[in-house]
Design a protein that fits this description.
Blueprint: H1 2-22, H2 25-32, H3 36-63, H4 69-78, E1 87-88, E2 97-98, H5 101-110, H6 118-132, H7 135-150
Helix pairs in contact: 1-3, 3-6, 3-7, 4-5
Amino acid sequence: MYFWRSSVRTLLEIRSALQALKANKEFIESLSTQPEQFRKAFEDLDKKIRTAHDFLKDILNEVGGHVKREAVKMALENMDMDRKALIELGPTIADSHYKFAGELIAEIILRKVPTERREAYLEEKIRMTAELTGALHAIDIVLLAYVDSRGLMK
């Protein structure tokens, strides 16, 4: 869960960086001189991340940092009573694992989604964020374009 939340935060930071790059005349001119695959990678990344923005922002606001007491309260009130999850108590906090946290986070994320649509919604959103992790390849391409345009490897 921590990794996923951090990934969402990173994707939103990437979106901000893309917006700054798109506003930079020098970058746009530099990108225009690159091969088609470079420009396409940048455009594809920009499109995917714009499409996912609202969802990513909701996740960040709901569970990306400190989970709000009200959100947990509402999740507990709305959870199906048949749900079960574990808590493993160790001799120290570091050795304890709160496996029920995933159930709470899922309920917070899905609170506005009708019961019959929840599984499909979660699958769609997890797939969306997984596809965006492929953004790292596009970032490599953009970085290579920058290195090339500046002649940094010569």
